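[Amino acid chain]
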Amino acid sequence: MRVPGLIERKRNGGELSPDEISELILGYARGEIPDYQMAAWCMAVYFRGLNGSETHALTDAMIRSGETLELGKALGRRVVDKHSTGGVGDKTSLAVGPIVAACGAPFGKMSGRGLGHTGGTLDKLESIPGFRVELTIDEFVAQVKEVGLAIIGQTGNL
């Protein structure tokens, strides 16, 4: 795969195949494609966009670029999650999680940090002395099994 050709094609408004996008993303995740080439491709995508097929291929490749966890399979039952678009008032995970768990539905949540002037869910939780958001996958699953609720941050490969 010749990355400059993919960048040029996207810059010129062309379409990339699912295999090309997959190799680009997985190659980058393996450290085979330098940051400057990925940055150039991202800029081309920003200006030219992705069609539905390319968006699907990108999402699929990003999923396959790291470890995945199927919490429902690990627990042997359905689990619930909630997702927010974020914002200054985004505190709902801190209320919704315990309510859902108290109703008997396992609630396993991967949350993020603040991106600007406000702290994210993880930042809020880490302000509690002794609260750990960096759990191993085994600790995460065990906590959801034991108490019905766990909120963690992403790991380097999850």
User: Anything to note?
Assistant: Helices lie at 3-11, 18-29, 35-48, 52-64, 71-75, 92-102, 121-126, 137-147. The longest strand covers residues 107-111. The chain has two domains: 3-64, 71-153.
